[in-house]
Amino acid sequence: MKVLVSGASVGGPVLAYWLRRHGYETTLVERAPAPRKGGQAVDIRGAALDVVAKMGVIERIRALRTTMRGMSMVDGDGNELMRSYEETVSGGRFDSPDIEIMRDDLTTILTSASGAEYVYGDSIATLDQDADGVDVTFESGGRGRYDYVFGADGLHSNVRRLTFGPEERFLHHLGTYVSIFTADNFLGLDRWQTWFREGDTGGALFSDRDATVMRVNLGFGAGPIDYDHRDVEQQKRLVQERCSGLRWEVPKLLEAMWKADDFYFDAMAQVRMERWSKGRVALVGDAGYCASPLSGQGTSLALVGAYVLAQELGRDPIGAFDRYEERMRPYVAQNQALALENPGQGASPESVQRAATSITLD
Fold it and tell me: What sequence ranges are listed for the domain FAD-binding (predicted)?
């Protein structure tokens, strides 16, 4: 059987890996012209650790995990309010079995392990399905027919839009926007996180193995904003406007933002849908059930969702999507709830642990 997967971040490569082992011929199409670099630190917890262990890549992931020594929080003028050598906001306690890794390091490992065909710089233009397959036209003008099409293409999923309708029907805004980019480490951070906040605006700075650079997060609270998700210049202007009142080192960070070629910006939002499949098309990860970075579980949801979907297709394609949803929905609900448990502070470690382990893989 021929399968097309849209999206080559986390869920797409993992889905391709497992589908190939169940005998499916898998192609991934990715709108970006090349593998995306940059991004935030992401976490692999609970059942998701079992997925990467079954793939045989857990030791490669551990070898590239972040090596943070601790974190501090500062006020608007950079005066330290607290520090910890036992945990970080992004990765939790250092004595936890969880793995924190930079997003681009993880996607590089998963892509190389998948063994699938990748087509970069293209995207699906139309989907036309019947009882036996899905006819696809691509923005490049190419065409293909596939037994199944899967959307692993993120919060603003193109496959979801083409199959289920406008994203406004499914996105639930959580009142925050965040930007992420790489800058020169002019603060000299050494495997350290520094967090700052004034009112509903703030950010975080991360330095890990490469001491010459740091990952910068700048964010602000706001209701839904009408902007072009592909217009990076417009997005940078939004961050400039909302964060220009911050003091400390923020003016230098904003200057660095305009030079960054790995800039990312989006809303903190969740995707909630009554169904994740229609006919021969199904969604996985953020495309179907984004929990938002505020949950800390988006990567784990994508890893587990891809594994379960492929597992059910491998067992029997008939009824596979129903079984996928039956197994995943309680797990998704618990993990999405983490983002809402304690707004502004984060869910408790106990809640995170319960959610991360609330599904069995076999």
Answer: 2-314
